[in-house]
Amino acid sequence: MPAPNWQLDGALVCNAAGVPLPNSLQPAHLLPTLDFGAHAMTTGPDDPSGVVLEYLRSVRQIVAAERDVMLRYLGSAVPTSAAFDDYAGVIEGAAQPALGAPTAHGAPSNGVAPNGASFNGAASNGTSANGTSTNGSSTNGSAAPAPAALTGEQLLREVQAIVSERTGYPVEMLDPDLDLEADLSIDSIKRIEIVGELAERIGLAGLDESAVDEEMVEELAQHKSLRAIVEWIEALATGEPSPATAESLAAAHAAHEPEHAHGPLPPVAQRFEVHTTLLGPAVALGDLHGSTAAVVEGHAVLTDAVVAALSARGASAARVERGAPVPERAELLAGFDVVVDLSATAGDRAVDARTVFADLQPALLGSTRRALAVTVPVHADGMPTGIPGLMRALARERHDALVRAVEVDPADLDGDLAPLAEILVDELLDLDAPAALSWSGGQRAARVVGEARDLAVPGELGLGPDAVVVITGGARGITARVAEGLARANPCRLVLVGRSAFPDRDEDPRTAGAVDRQAIRRALLEIGDLRTPSEIEAACNRIEADREMRATLATLRSFGAEVEYVSLDVRDPRFGELLDELRDRHGRLDGVIHGAGVLDDHFLRDKTLAGFDRVFGTKLDGARAILDRQAGMRFVVLFGSVSGVFGNKGQADYAAANDALDTLARTRDGLHDCRVISLDWGPWGGGGMVSVELEREYARRGIGLVDPADGVMALLHEVAAGSGPSQLVVMRGAPEAFAPPVDHTPASDDLVAGPRA
User: Fold this and answer.
1) pLDDT category of residue 261 using cuts at 50, 70 and 90
2) Residue 28 to residue 8: CA distance in whole angstroms
3) Domain total for the chain?
């Protein structure tokens, strides 16, 4: 009789490979590090989360004390310094120095001196992996040994074990080269948590979650696989990064923005108007002697004038024809110290942020330290370029370079353009100006966010039950919440447009009982039809999407709304035909809420032109189709983002698209008696594009999430008002939290002095 295909390991039931069976008793695992840093001991009794954290704090202190008692009983020495209060800093989540960073005495903070000796501060949590103290002292004053270094394979197994526990995937399914984001839905913030748990398990100082900062998030964002994370940790521990790791770290450090102090978060979201403020003339520092400059051709006369002005400032200037992004062109632009892109001034409607990005990407990844893009607000067909938003985002990534957009009035492109060219060259030498500004009629100006105002309660919408409102963005997330708020306030005919197909059958009963993503994964693993994590994650996404879409339509109908769902990409020409058909069918089209959008966040070096086009086009192509038909509508609401207003690292495409929407609202508001408004949202909670992990990262930076109820109230107020500003920012946090001042200080000497010999 063959041996059974299972085994007993104490109380654990395992298969022949030693893996516990699904839903069986699982091996014990360490809890992740608890971060209590956001809740001081003064937390009031009315704060439930604070009460829970205070309880957990106390429990952890008790456990630490019991550990010491047991160690003493068993004959192990416990340092006298390991008293009750010494654990408070650990429990509070106090930040530790970064791994390998110098201490006050010049020694690295990973607890190992260059000769291998240990010293105080070896472990970030005060204990080694086996629970013994590693604070560098004992009762007899001798130094405690540092945690044993793990090899790459050992580290990989530890990381695989942690990911297995967090995702439910068996270790054997976790190929070291899987794409963490695409295959496992593990974003950079979740990677921080994995590294933090690893640090706690094996005693890696400075890598616990309490020490996380924006720079570490950016560094980990560059590492897409389990193997890459392990190599990154090894590089930090040894101080000898691989070429790939060194490149990643260099890119992240170049994009790093120092933290700035911020006040307490406002309790709710607030409303900010955006207005134009006049600026003084540019303060030109230094000159361009020894620099090579490329001028991408635009307006013919302006191009000649800029080449002449650059030459007068000592640069060796060359004209570069506008052209397609080919390798030869990229190599050419990457070799210049200065790039001035005038292509948007030529009157070519095909030029916008997409084409300018195609030129500036290789330039900024190459030798370019100064990049200026000159644009007009809108082309002759009324479409904006989005270039100011593009440059705001690029400026946030490249603090070692001067990156700027100047928007010029087409009326200023007539006559003698030599003075304008000199003004534009001055912008290449002003280190303190905003990343995007304008020049019109002799005035230099910039768009700024005004004072905070409380959100207003909406009045009567007055749409009536027969009104027809189209909402793009599908039946999920933010747009679903907006549709529900509209249906509750004013039941009418709602047409929801989304790329996802509406589910045409009930969910498989084998997954229907799974209440969260972890449970869905387990159910799919038990079914066994899907073989890879990427297949399972795609199925999880589909199941969660189908559930939310069904729930949204059911909720809308419960409020008395007549609901139609149309599966259609707003970039498809048929979207415009749909708007025409709805107007013909119902005899009216009262308004459109354009919430469709996609994200493809990547830092400059990893962003593709195809991804940029998709992100930019989803916003702009949809808006064009809507605004071409705004006659007869009461309102058009464009969903913008604070990324377009302030810029955001990794979102050059998204920032450009949302800046373009802002420009559309300013130029189209009031035409045909139709209110057009761009609402620039801060990150939403409860269904927006923000994960739980990212929410914590925002809070660390002084940014709160917009409560969906507040966001809906703000939108409905603007619809009901019928008039008002064409651009509003709705966010929870001060402008400084979203856009700390750009600090060119580290690069100022080089920028003023010019190229190095």
Assistant:
1) low
2) 16
3) 4
